[in-house]
Amino acid sequence: MATCPRCKGPLTDDHRCPKRQGLVIIEIVATALGGGLAGLLLLAAFDPRGQIADLDVITFIGGAAVAVGVNRLIRS
Ligand SMILES: [Zn+2]
Fold first, then answer.
1. Distance in Å, CA 34 to ligand 1 centroid
2. Which residues, in sequence order, are CB contacts of 5 under 8 Å at separation 6+?
3. How far does residue 2's CA lie from ligand 1's centre (Å)?
4. For residue 54, what is the DSSP state?
5. Rounded to whole angstroms, how far apart are CA atoms 29 and 22?
6. What confidence tens digit (pLDDT) does each residue in 3-18 have?
7. How do residues 19-47 score in pLDDT, each as one tens digit?
8. 40-72 pLDDT, tens per residue?
9. Residue 8 C-alpha to ligand 1 middle, in angstroms?
């Protein structure tokens, strides 16, 4: 079987070179940051006067977790 010139893996018809580990980590971090920020924006939209500002961190972590989870589901 032919081997891929870039990653040395078996060159099948639908071969795609695996991403480098560092890039995967960067993508996960970027996804988590984006999800966290989206969560904060949502919170701000529902709470324009900041009455539940104590939830900032929880919202950020929740948004990040959801974003990473969805990203993993889409890619698997
Ligand atoms: Zn390859």
1. 29
2. none
3. 11
4. G
5. 11
6. 999 888 889 998 988 8
7. 788 888 999 999 999 999 999 899 888 88
8. 899 888 887 767 667 788 999 999 999 999 998
9. 6
pTM for this entry: 0.63
Number of residues assigned to the chain: 76
The percent of residues in the chain predicted with pLDDT above 90, rounded, is 37
How much distance in Å is there from the Cα of 61 to the middle of ligand 1? 35
Question: Which one-letter DSSP state was computed for residue 49?
Answer: T
Q: Residue 33: which of 68, 71, 1 has the closest Cα? A: 68
Cα(20) to ligand 1 centroid in Å equals: 11
User: Nearest-5° angle of CA 14, CA 16, CA 22?
Assistant: 160
Tell how far the Cα of 6 is from the centroid of ligand 1, in angstroms: 5
